[in-house]
Amino acid sequence: MTSLAWILSQEAAENLDLPPRQRVVAVLVSILILLGVLELVRQRKLREEYSALWVLTALGLLVLALNYRILVWLTHLIGAVLPTSTLFFGGLVFLMLLALQFSVRLSRLTYRSRSLTRRVALLEEELRELKRRFPEEGEDLGNDEGD
Amino acid sequence: MPVGTSAPRLHHEERPKGSRVLVLIPAMNEEENLGGVLDPLVCHFSPQDILVVDDGSSDRTPEIAAGYGCKVVSHLHNLGYGSTLLTGYHYALLHDYDFVVQLDGDGQHPPELIPRLLDPVLRGESDVVVGSRYLEGKSPTGFLRRLGALPLSLVASLWIGARITDPTSGFQALSKKAVLELCTDGFPDDYPDIDVLIHLHRKNIRIREVPVAMRPRLHGQTMHGGWKAIYYYYRMAVCLLLMPIRRNSPYRRQRPMEDDSLGEGPLGGIYS
User: Is residue A125 part of a domain?
Assistant: First the structure.
């Protein structure tokens, strides 16, 4: 009844697809999201590494909007009752993945800022020490032509 | 002073080249306590060999340390106890020290007991000597604190196969081998605990405890207690469970710091 072959058949198309107006709106919205994300990448406001999940989601939405029957098929596949629950579930998984990705990046940034702070502290001490040891050289370092 | 009788000859000029000791003092907002720590120390160590790592203090901690002629390294902002120690370890390697003695800047650790920690390391009998306040019965900390630390010391003792009673003690003496291991990998840059000892043990570094008396803090707050303690337990659990299968940190292989003492030899490449 809900095999992939049936879902893609003409009979299913007549029974399951969205009304044309809804379909157009859904397709337009997903295209807008996709373009918006790509525009942010073009303006260098969003790094490519963070855009991947967003582009994937926008593409997923586009496919579902073009062919609602796939959503119905997915709903049966995961055992949900309503197609809307499948959408919510998908949204939730997407948000969790995004949050996890941020946590990983945050850990890396934490590590890097900490090690940078330590390195800067050591370098500052080194610089202070050098200036103390060689006070004259430190002052006219800029225009010194080999003394 | 009891140090005079039992202390090894520690002054830079008197000692043979290549057996220098760095006194490492992590300090965060300790302007009231630091003087009491440094006063006895500068009698027995050259101030040039005393390093105060200031963990982003907002008070006069770095000025006080500099006033004693000590070396001062200051973090731009507060990074926590582990990072403060790590900065000190890196400093020790950068300046080619052979031994490190660390004691807290809050005056808990009596400087006159340094020889007790340092001697076994100087003699090469151990790589890490930890000063334990629990080894000789009477402890200045509360019953609850003691009870909370008990499971951790049990785990550490069983894992290492030696009696560890005070794994969180910051009063330690370390050999260069141990310091090198701590800088290479495995040192948590937030709160070091028994995972450090276990990590060192896994790397075949000899650990030993000696009894020390500790004084209660004179001023200010301690680091432990409250919600932090619960997080602490969680962190330990994750750390210990993952320890046998954990990978090395992918971020700790970076360009070494430019310095003559690091140009060649085994130390190049460890700076992170």
Answer: yes
Whether residues A112 and B251 touch (CB distance < 8 A) is answered with yes
Instruction: Please check whether residue B31 lies inside any domain of the structure.
Output: yes
Nearest CA of chain B to the CA of A11: how many Å?
54
Residue A99 lies in a domain: yes
Please report the ipTM that was assigned to this predicted complex.
0.77
Spatial contact of B198 and B240, defined as CB atoms under 8 Å apart: yes
Q: What is the pLDDT of residues A18-55, one digit of tens each?
A: 788 888 998 999 999 999 999 999 999 998 888 888 89
Whether B118 contacts B38, CB under 8 Å: no
Q: If you average pLDDT over residues B181-198, what whole number do you get?
A: 78
Residue A114's closest chain B neighbor by CA? B79
Please, what sign has the CA dihedral across residues A6, A8, A10, A12? positive
B79: which chain A residues are within 8 Å (Cβ-Cβ)?
Answer: 114, 117-118
Please check whether residue B179 lies inside any domain of the structure. Answer: yes
pLDDT at A122 over 90: yes
pLDDT band at B214 (very low <50, low <70, confident <90, very high): confident
Quote the number of domains for chain A: 1
The CATH number of the domain holding residue B115 is 3.90.550.10
Q: B254 lies in a domain? A: no
What pLDDT does B85 receive?
93
Enclosing domain of residue B196:
14-246
Cβ of B79 within 8 Å of Cβ of A111? The answer is no
How many structural domains are present in chain B? 1
Is A118 within 8 Å of B91 when comparing Cβ atoms? no
Q: CB-based contact (8 Å) between A109 and chain B?
A: no
Q: Does B86 touch chain A (CB under 8 A)?
A: yes
Cross-chain residue pair B76–A125, CB shorter than 8 Å:
no
Q: Would residue A72 count as lying in a domain?
A: no
SS3 B128: strand
- What is residue A34's predicted lDDT score, i.e. its pLDDT? 93
For chain A, give the mean pLDDT.
84
Which residue range is the domain that position A115 belongs to? 83-135
Contact B24, B90 (CB under 8 A): no
What angle separates helix B227-242 from helix B143-160, to the nearest 10 degrees?
10
Rounded CA Rg of chain B: 18
Whether B265 is covered by a domain: the verdict is no
